[in-house]
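Replying to the earlier thread about multi-chain prediction with a worked example.

Input:
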Amino acid sequence: MPPGSLSKRKGVDVNEHQSQYVIVGGSAAGMAAAHTIRAKDVRGTITVLSEEPDVPYFRPLIPFLVSGQKQPEDMALTGSGPYMGADIAVKTGARVAACDPDSRSLTLEDGTCYGYEKVLFATGSRPYVPPEIEGTGAEGVFALRTLADARSMAARAARTAHAVMLGGGLLNLKAAFALLERGVKVTLVVYSPEVLSQLMDPEDAYLVRKALDDAGLTIHTGASATAIQSDPSGVTGVALDNGEELACQMVCIGKGVRPNVEFLQGSGVAVDGGIVADRFTAASRPDTYAAGDVAVTHDPISGAPIMTALWTNAVEMGRCAGMNMAGIKTAYTGTFGILNATQVADEPFVAMGVVHTRSGDYEIHRRATATTFRKLVFDPGGNRLVGAVFVGDIRNAGLYRYVIRERMDVTGFKPAIIDHTLHYGHFIC
Amino acid sequence: MSQPKEIFVRTDRCVGCRSCITACAVEHSASKTLFGAIAETPRPKSRVYVEWVAPDHKVPLVCRHCEDAPCMHACISGAIHRDADGVVRTDADKCIGCWTCVMVCPYGVIGRHLEEHKAYRCDRCPDREIPACVDACPTGALVYQTVPAYSGAARQHASRELVQAEGG
Ligand SMILES: Cc1cc2nc3c(=O)[nH]c(=O)nc-3n(C[C@H](O)[C@H](O)[C@H](O)COP(=O)(O)OP(=O)(O)OC[C@H]3O[C@@H](n4cnc5c(N)ncnc54)[C@H](O)[C@@H]3O)c2cc1C
Ligand code: SF4
Ligand code: SF4
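Result:
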């Protein structure tokens, strides 16, 4: 519909648009869904509404803008990988303020309305900023999530000699390395007894910790910030609960994320933490779907409801939602909450499935060499692999993931799993 | 190419001579000769692997350029795409060495180039009519064929099913 022609007529709301498929959020889940719909329905109109001013990009790449190793155009999603972008309208700067499933319409903050036949909520999550820390509003305090955040962080980095990172998760480590790359001194303040506590037990993280120490990060464990100090130039320091004060010009908060669900208030769409999605990615009202960080899905092993914060999961669920929206009923197989591969300093590692084993009944095999560590976690009976951590040597990690996910009986090749010599031949011979 | 060819594996014919591995490394070396390749640093990497299973099965493995390639969808930097010939390619310029693809490939055929901190895999030898590994195999354990032309062994089907389950 050409809105321009309508605007001349009286009595017709110029700000009404109609699209067969409307997707709220133009990131991993939203864009994967849009491309899947396009592959299955060549004609249906697809509109992606995105709050951000930037066109869709690969979010995990934003630390490279901080380090100066990549520019925004190197991170653009459209035209890269499987995202060829055929005939998908993306509106940036379009924040959805309300959803009315009865009239199948969305209202943007500026009052514009979008009617839909099917809608996907792929609004992701945003950083959690603990309210108990005073002074988080100061200039120079960041929680790295968007390209816009990365831009301001890069600008501030030029004036930063010392940065303090609050939280020892993967995102903060990535941000920390980006700053180290720029020559900024970096201190990590971690409440847990060890870094990466979400991804491994403290005793399993020693090689990663050593790599971080060797790379020049200063790490305070068992401490948390109480207040951020600032003056008109921005951040000047951080006060810790152990009485210490760290002078710094930048603070980066990495304390986890919270789903973006506020726009659904009053819509009747069921929210329980995140948006509740059924096995076919449908949300609770007719023709509504949810995928990505914002969705509550299920663990394939326990069946328990979980929310994840992973690009890979968001894409997979987004693709599944796209199939369902295009009319091809497809069950979402669920996912592990932990499914991480990365490299920090020179240390590659993979953590997947059940990795925390201090409580619970498991059969655990740990093996370590001077440069590698691995932990294989089996169910109590010992014939199903449920989790794995590999540090230093991550060879063939995909096979272990497959064994976990398919709940394979490992009787025939268990020694190969424990020895980390599993290969595809074991599945077919 | 209307019907792209694929590399098929006949495990029953493999004698484990590793000719394919050498040929692949040479093809992906700067000099493209055996003597040149041996001298290069970093050492040229093979993208084909030969594994062994008791009592005495040899299993050549190479990227299958899967239909719903899990690696391509999982890549967090858009470094993996499928080209017009159906070949799933890793773009080394875009790759950041996060190893997410290694974590999701159910065949274990993505290598990690440690010196360059990049992932690598079979590229079907774009400069050759027949991939180097297939050319080098003395027993016909590697076959380069279109899918319908290859009335394959049951094992090939078993591996296809694996991918389908994975594609979700
Ligand atoms: C620095 C960094 C590194 C990361 N590294 C990895 C990694 O290595 N591996 C991995 O698996 N994951 C990684 N992640 C996590 C990954 O980026 C997220 O899990 C993924 O982006 C989630 O995708 P999504 O589509 O669900 O939501 P998001 O990417 O959060 O996108 C949601 C979009 O919706 C928009 N939006 C929200 N509300 C509205 C509204 N009301 N109206 C319109 N638009 C709205 C948001 O602005 C946003 O653009 C990383 C994240 C960061 C920040
Ligand atoms: S998942 Fe593995 S076998 Fe399939 S295309 Fe990717 S690298 Fe190749
Ligand atoms: S290692 Fe490279 S190709 Fe593989 S997922 Fe990461 S960025 Fe993509």
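DSSP finds ten helices and 26 strands in chain A.

Feel free to reuse this layout for your own posts.
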